[in-house]
Structure formats: structure tokens, C-alpha cells
């Protein structure tokens, strides 16, 4: 009589269970896997030996072995899951932030609270000055079509005045038809079009926002900078109103001791046009690197609205007249706080930024 190869099966199963329980770490269990349920396990050896059994005994023995394998595999999976859980818990514990320490640190150190950047703060102050003078505040898009940035402002394609604004083009639509606005003046056109459509003229508005030019950054220029546009359209507006607004603004924002002057200039969308300058606050007019030794700093351009602009938006120039201006907000911040080099505004050096909290 031959002994069944499965005679010792229950002993093997119990030894395998002990081996599984004896693995203290996931690593140890996985190293043992091949001997417990893998190719080098006793279960695999027994599986091969079933071939020697008589065909009528093979089926029962196969089912018995299969049952034993399922039992061992189940115990193995349970142990593996439990060791994995333990390992995860250890990793979490190692990564745990001791919140007690953090709270103590926060109590011990003063919390650093942020504040608006110098340009944002300047924009708000400028808005306040103009709101106090009776202006409303409006907004316009930074990505503009050629019509708003140039054509409606009396700058047709190929007009030499386009050279005044070195433009970033956006890769959309026909080539060179969509731009990052080079100034806030296109917002004038949006406001005029809306007011004409809604029949809500007059307009007394300022429009602050970001502009872009292919300018090389230097002491007075950035490639992304900010302007505040002003637009007044009403009955009987004259150049004297424009000069009065600029003078009032200068003293309200820079103080009574800062002088301003208007110099004749050219802009395609205003006629007559002027450049608006104030005494350089860095050298108080003596001449320095920031003002290129002139003693004056140009803040912006201005003038009476050109009839071509009224025609482009359908405003009757016999009934209405108006003026516009556009100042650099970064330039205003620079002059107000006597910052010799405008690039300091975008350097993000906290020692500089902290001075304006
Ligand atoms: C204009 O942009 C006209 N749109 C202004 C205007 C509006 C004229 C309405 C008439 C009527 P200009 O290119 O000169 O003009 O720019 C106006 C101001 O923006 C400058 O005086 C300066 O203060 C600021 N500015 C211009 N380019 C830069 C730059 N690259 N970096 C910082 N500020 C700039």
C-alpha cells in the first residue's frame, strides 16, 4: 500500500501558518512568499507529486490540496495587509507635524501679514483722488483688437505713429490683429461706444490697468506697467478744464510743493496734445540719472479729443467736446516714493517691499 503524498498536508499547512505569523515585517513576509505560496512552497511540490497518483485518486487529492492552498493564501493575504497597515502608520507617524510646536512658534514670533504691493496701493490712491474730483472708475480688457488699440484712436495700419508703441502681438486670428494693449487709451473707445449705444453721454471716468510694450526695462520703464486713463466728454469742455484737472491732481497726489508743466506733444487721438511733467522728486529739479539730468519727469500724455475719434465712435462733435489723459501708475509710485530705479518695483526684494507696508 502506497502512502498518499497528502498524508502530512495538515501538518504542512500548520507549519506554513506559523511561518506566516512569524514574519515580523512586510519585507520579511515578502521575502518568504516564494517558500510559502510560491514555486518553492511545499504546496507546489505536492501539486507536482499528484501526477503519480492513480487517476481515480487524483481528483480528490487535487481538491484537498486546492483547499489547503486557499487557506494558506488567505492567511498570507491577511498578514500582508496587516503588516502594510503597520508600515503606513509608522510612515505617517514619522511625517507627523507637531502642531503643538507650530502653535508655540506662532505665539513666539510675530505673524508676517501681507499688504497690497506698492503699485496696487498707488492705483487705489489715484482712484481715490479722481473719485473725489467727481470721476467714476471703469475697467477695460488687456488683450485688444487692432481696432481698439490703434484704428479707432486714429492710428490706421502702417501709420508711422504705430512706432510710438512697440507692440506685443497675440497669436490669434489674422497676423498682427490682436495685441496686448500698449496703453489704456483703447478703454476710452469702449466707454464711448457703450455710452453712444446706451445714450448715456456725458462721461467723466478714469480707467486704470496694466499695459505691455516691448520696452527694455530701465530706470523709468518696464515691459509690463500700469497706466490710468482719464476721459471727460461733455458739452463745452475746453483745454482749460484739462489743465485744471491736471493741476488739481498734481497737488492732491504729490503735494503743493511739486510743480507740473504741460509741453506741446503729438498723439494721433488728441488735438492739441501735451505731455505732462512734474519736478523730479529724486533730485528736486537739480538733475539726476532717473530724470536724465533734466530735472523733470514725464508722467503722461493728454489733449483734447480728436474729431477723428468722435467720428470713429459716432459722437457728434458739434454737440460734445472732451479731453483725455494717460499717466503711468508705476511712474507716479516712483515719484511719490522717490524710487531711483523703477525695476525695484518688480524685483520682489522683501527688504524693499517692507518699506511700503
Ligand atoms: C500714451 O500711452 C498715451 N496713450 C497717453 C495719452 C492718453 C495721451 C490720452 C493723450 C490722451 P505715452 O506712450 O507717452 O502715452 O505713455 C504715457 C505714460 O505711460 C508715460 O508718460 C509713462 O508715465 C508711462 N509709460 C509709458 N511706457 C512705460 C513703460 N515702458 N514703463 C513704465 N511706464 C511707462
Task: Give structural notes.
With 357 residues, the protein is of the alpha+beta class. It has two domains: 9-95; 118-356, Bira Bifunctional Protein, Domain 2 (BirA Bifunctional Protein, domain 2, 2-Layer Sandwich), CATH 3.30.930.10. The chain contains twelve helices and nine strands. The protein has helices spanning 9-22, 26-36, 42-49, 55-95, 99-108, 118-132, 146-149, 186-198, 239-254, 307-313, 329-336, 350-353; strands at 136-137, 143-145, 178-180, 203-212, 224-234, 260-267, 270-279, 296-305, 321-328. The strands form two sheets. The protein has a seven-stranded mixed beta sheet, with helices on both faces. Strand 6 (260-267) and strand 7 form a beta hairpin. The model has no long low-confidence stretch (mean pLDDT 92). Adenosine-5'-[phenylalaninyl-phosphate] binds next to strand 5, strand 7, strand 8, strand 9 and helix 11. Residues 183, 185, 213, 215, 221-222, 225, 227, 267, 270, 273, 298-303, 324-328, 330-331 line the site of adenosine-5'-[phenylalaninyl-phosphate] (FA5).
Amino acid at each position: 500500500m502506497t502512502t498518499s503524498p497528502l498524508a502530512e498536508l495538515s501538518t504542512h499547512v500548520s507549519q506554513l501558518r506559523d511561518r506566516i505569523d512569524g514574519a515580523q515585517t512586510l519585507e520579511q513576509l515578502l521575502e518568504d512568499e516564494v517558500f510559502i505560496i510560491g514555486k518553492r512552497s511545499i504546496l507546489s511540490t505536492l501539486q507536482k507529486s499528484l501526477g503519480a497518483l492513480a487517476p481515480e485518486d487524483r481528483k480528490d487529492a487535487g481538491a484537498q490540496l486546492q483547499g489547503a492552498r486557499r487557506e494558506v493564501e488567505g492567511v498570507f493575504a491577511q498578514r500582508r495587509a496587516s503588516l502594510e497597515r503597520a508600515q503606513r502608520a509608522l510612515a505617517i507617524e514619522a511625517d507627523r507635524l507637531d502642531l503643538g510646536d507650530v502653535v508655540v512658534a506662532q505665539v513666539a514670533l510675530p505673524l508676517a501679514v501681507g499688504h497690497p504691493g506698492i503699485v496696487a496701493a498707488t492705483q487705489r490712491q489715484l482712484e481715490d483722488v479722481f473719485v473725489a474730483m467727481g470721476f467714476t472708475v471703469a475697467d477695460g480688457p488687456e488683450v485688444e483688437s487692432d481696432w481698439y488699440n490703434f484704428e479707432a484712436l486714429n492710428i490706421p495700419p502702417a501709420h508711422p505713429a504705430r512706432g510710438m508703441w512697440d507692440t506685443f502681438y497675440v497669436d490669434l486670428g489674422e497676423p498682427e490683429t490682436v495685441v496686448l494693449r500698449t496703453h489704456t487709451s483703447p478703454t476710452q473707445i469702449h466707454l464711448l461706444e457703450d455710452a453712444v449705444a446706451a445714450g448715456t453721454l456725458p462721461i467723466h471716468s478714469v480707467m486704470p490697468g496694466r499695459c505691455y510694450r516691448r520696452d527694455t526695462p530701465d530706470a523709468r520703464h518696464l515691459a509690463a506697467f500700469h497706466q490710468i486713463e482719464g476721459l471727460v466728454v461733455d458739452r463745452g469742455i475746453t483745454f482749460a478744464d484739462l489743465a485744471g484737472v491736471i493741476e488739481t491732481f498734481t497737488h492732491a497726489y504729490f503735494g503743493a510743493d511739486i510743480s507740473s508743466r504741460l509741453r506741446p506733444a503729438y498723439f494721433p487721438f488728441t488735438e492739441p496734445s501735451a505731455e505732462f511733467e512734474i519736478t523730479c522728486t529724486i533730485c528736486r529739479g537739480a538733475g539726476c540719472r532717473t530724470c536724465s539730468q533734466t530735472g523733470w519727469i514725464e508722467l503722461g500724455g493728454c489733449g483734447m479729443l480728436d474729431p477723428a475719434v468722435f467720428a470713429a465712435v459716432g459722437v457728434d462733435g458739434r454737440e460734445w467736446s472732451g479731453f483725455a489723459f494717460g499717466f503711468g501708475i508705476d511712474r507716479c509710485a516712483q515719484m511719490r516714493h522717490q524710487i531711483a530705479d523703477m525695476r525695484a518695483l518688480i524685483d520682489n526684494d522683501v527688504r524693499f517691499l517692507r518699506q511700503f507696508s
